[in-house]
Amino acid sequence: MQYRRFGRTELSMPVFSCGGMRYQYQWQDVPTQEIPSDNQVNLETIIHRSLEVGINHIETARGYGTSEAQLGKILPTLPREKLIVQTKVSPVADAREFQRTFERSLTNLKLDYVDLLGLHGINTPELLHYSTRPGGCLEVAQRFQAQGKVRFIGFSTHAATDTILQAIETNQFDYVNLHWYYIFQDNWAAIEAATARDMGVFIISPSDKGGHLYRPPQKLVELCKPLSPMVFNDLFCLSHPQVHTLSIGASRPQDFDEHLKTLNWLDRADEILPPILQRLEQVAIDTLGEDWYRTWHIGLPRYTETPGNINIPTILWLRNLALAYDLVDYAKARYNLLTNAGHWFPGAKANNFNPHHLRPYLTNSPHADRIPELLKEADRLLGGEAVKRLSQQ
Questions:
Q1: What is the full DSSP assignment across 123-186?
Q2: Domains of the chain
Q3: pLDDT tens digits, one per residue of 258-312
Q4: Total-model pTM
Q5: What average pLDDT is seen over the chain?
């Protein structure tokens, strides 16, 4: 395993983290006696495998159902000083509720303290306000920190980049969990801002949200050779020293194996990545057209500015991925989350809109005349039954 300094926390962070949202029994709390023994054994085997390969950062959240309570059966049996334990609690309007929820997390984990407490899902300006206003959730977290129950405080986010930047610019957080990987690089400005403030940078779900890379299409497999798409994406992220750790949401002990192959390439990233990156870009240009590839994102309105909250940037992005890299299953899954995932993946699909009503909102786009038809094409390609977030299933 390789380790990186996790910003001003000074923690020695493994470049991979053991994420806790896929090995738990249920997304809802249930009495521990109702958790099947085979599920608990699998979770504990995953934790032991994680530590065996040097991944000592164990990450979970109060919102991950039984995950905390199940971890509470194994973490107290392990050498505490060798672990970096993180949980996350969502900010809410009532800071007293946030306090009670974190106390529940500590009880579940059966630990005296956590190394990292994240305010979970600062996805909107309102949630940022709940977090940072006087008497808000961040002040509660800081009181726990003063009591020795929390070592460092950060936040996780699925927000637009400008909201992430606002949170970073408060300079009140020690680290950030955010999305950034090859197919989604919009948040680079946030990573740079976090680096300038010496914050730890933790990448959320690079293999799942980064393209369902555990089931890659054959086209992507060919483009990424000699690496697998998963190893390519890991290497792409970790080739940037501003990135400190990538989450592995393991559901089986062997889920670490493919990621670990990345370690053999880290010192050769400058050699192995450029030809792969060139192929990926050229295929996208050949498929989509160079003008569209370079400029499709310019001048697009936010979903909050369009009739029916149609999320035009996200829909066109998913269309690009489906056409250029055959990431159709991934694009369908994400597209059909729209309207159903709240602030975690906001905005609506393009399944019911009037092109004439939309045109006034596209005046800043060089592709204004094409976009209504491309949105209809995307809906024909990607539309289907509504998809729920994992925590809603």
A1: -SHHHHHHHHSTTSHHHHHHHHHHTTSEEEEEEE--S-HHHHHHHHHTT--SEEEE--BTTB-T
A2: 3-267 (3.20.20.100), 289-392 (no CATH)
A3: 999 999 999 999 999 999 999 999 999 999 999 999 999 999 999 999 999 999 9
A4: 0.93
A5: 95
